[in-house]
Give the backbone structure.
Amino acid sequence: MSKRNNGITRRSFVATTAAGATALALPGNVLAQAKDSLVMAWPIDPPTFDPIIRTNPGIQSIYKMIFDQPVTQQPDLKVIPAVVKAWKVSEDGKTIDLEFRDDVLWHDGKKLTTADFRYTYVERKEKGHKSDLASVFRNLTDVKVESPTKCQMILSQPMPTVIQWMTFLANYIVPKHYVEEVGPEKFAEKPIGSGPYKLVSYERNSRIVLEAFDKYWGPKPTIKKITILIMKDPSARVAAIQSGQADWVPEVPIREVERLGKVAGLTAEILPITRVIMLQIRSDRAFADQNVRLAAHHAIDKAALSRALYGGKAVPLSVVATPGTPGFVEGFNFPYDPKKAQELLAKAGFSPSKPLQIGMASFNGVFPGDYDIARAIAQMWKRIGIEAKIDVIEQPKYFELNRGNQLPEATLYSWDNATGDPEMFAGYLLHPKLPFSAWKDEKIGGEIMKLFAVVNYDERIKGYKEVNVKAASEGAVMPLLQSVMTFVYKKGLKTVNYANGWNLPQYWSWS
Amino acid sequence: MSGGVLGVALRRIGVSLPLVFLVSVLVFVVLRLIPADPVAMSVPPNATRAEIEALRAEMGLTLPIHEQFWIWFAKAAGADFGKSIAFAQPVSRLIGQALPATIELVVVAAVFATIIGLAGGLLMYRVAGGRGEAASDLASTLIMSIPEFLWAIFFILLFGVALNILPFTGRLDAGITVGRITGFLLVDTLIQGRFGAFLNALSHLLLPSMSLALGTAPLLMRVLRSSLMEVGNEDYMMMARLRGFSERRVLVHHAFKNAFLPTLNLMGVQFSFLFGGTLLVEVIYSYPGLGSLMVQAVANTDLPVIQGVALVYAVAVLLINLGVDLAALMLNPKLRIAK
């Protein structure tokens, strides 16, 4: 095999590695990718291929390659038909009529019917199969099957976001005949779905190989073979795209995106998605005083954070919703105003010479720039008279602290919401009885709880917009930035960008 | 195996069993004391607090620690490590899938470490007192001072990106699939007569195993050199030289044989460390072994998996040490008499 890179002499090569000689004789490599195949690097390995088990946002795109959701979303997040081609929610929000396509096949050639839907949403729970889907649809009492293409969901209580949930986490239809035949554990290892790709092989923590399903009911993928390399280390992903061992890599550090964007043959992108970086706030302790909370919020220069850490691509936010989603409030701005911050803090009796001591929790390495954001905010607060002691925590500790109501005054957090619906933003983050809420005050929390029962869409969205403004204005939450996703890929690959960060190669092609 | 060696082996196993028990107690207790909530990690965003508490109770996490431990230990004794919280699969199955990959990696790394360590030790001895001594000292110190994960990143950048001659992800190239028989790819490819796939698997092992080996080899070099220097002044060495044997023959046939035993003992300790080194190296190389599984389990606070993998690590370390002790006994008759 000939030398591939200029500037490396035979002598230097021999001097640096004897092992290379073995490799030079090796057959087959990943560099030569045909135009109908794609090698993707992925930072997370699916814990299971049973798609209803876990609500893990990072693996939804992989599930969407293999399985179908009842309904799906366009790149701009509008809900559109999929396996379910029409739906009707009753006025009381307790029954949902669904009409299925009649041309959907499982990867083994059998037809997908409403019986599979009932099995997924009702029967598996009855059989004791533990799943997050069962927990999400805890109020679903039955699915009445009328025909192979028609059924009705019966809920014990209204679930205003039932349709949005059917595009969201863990909502995938699984094949009744196959799961019953092989059992749930075997299914989780070697599944069949009805999606655009079939799972050919899987090696945990290493790679997933998919092949296009030629009888897929939707648009046939032009890329016929997908190899997903599980690469958790960001530097390994950078090396993979640079060496040509991968065609597409996500979640590349911002500085690397800027550098790789200048490399010939590569395209680099930074895209804002429906993920919010924010400070979760306690309603008591040092933050019991609204003046203090608002002072802390006014002291944060979000634009500067975006410029310093995200190349200016992360949009500063004033509400817990991203631009373009229903709960976003156009025209509302919570300004960076350090003077006002000092005035508000003075009202509470604190100043730079008499600082307020608070606690702040932050992850380090869970999402891009997390700990840097926390440190920068601590510096901004220090200028007005708030001294924050940063405690770096891991996700499990976050849940433990939150469960015991032991989080400090402020916690830096990142929240994903592929649906864009405000219930999955402000709803889950400010509902005092749900596990992800740090805010326990029932004034704003009470308004949120009421909205969980509002079935009328327009009324619900209006309510959330009002609560969003109120929550920011009263310092119940401090939205910071709309988070970004970064990608680097080979030139010639045409991708489709979804506002929620889905990466679906079934819609991609090589030019 | 002679009766003496067998007796020593049985005694060592007898001592090892309580050690495994102690390790399992330690791991179990420490994991229960850390402030982390494994249940809340794996619930949907609209889960209620009551549901989380119910799940915790169902998983036995509300029982006293000693009760939890005995339930777990009784099952673990039968190789049932429970069900993973994150993967929703039996832990023993997850370990069974990942263990062969790690053993393969550690064995290849041990081979590299032995070759580099012994060859380097002999070389260092040969150049001792000469102009090359300072250079060989510097080289071994430099290699020793760089941790495995830095070697891993350096090798990726050098051989994967700059030279672009070696793969650095997974166990096989994207286009190659090999049916699983034993889980040991090098073995499975040969059983199936796929020599090309065998070479491909070997090429994927080179960089991670070298990264691991370089953490171990310098110590072997130095110990071997010191041992050689010790035996270098023995009477039998002088006699060999007086008999007119070449320096190479004296070194290999007389000095090395006697100097090897201390190195062998060190190899036992160092090869145990290779298992620990796999944690980061496997993640960096996307290598699907126990290290990757452990890191993923820690990230999810997947207690059953962490406990299971930790126990496997402990048993592996004890087995390696046992193997090395037995090898030393077989190679050195004096030890058998002493025992």
Notes: Chain A touches chain B through 75 residues (CB under 8 Å). Residues 92 and 158 of chain A are 7 Å apart (CA to CA). The first helix of chain A runs from residue 10 to 16.
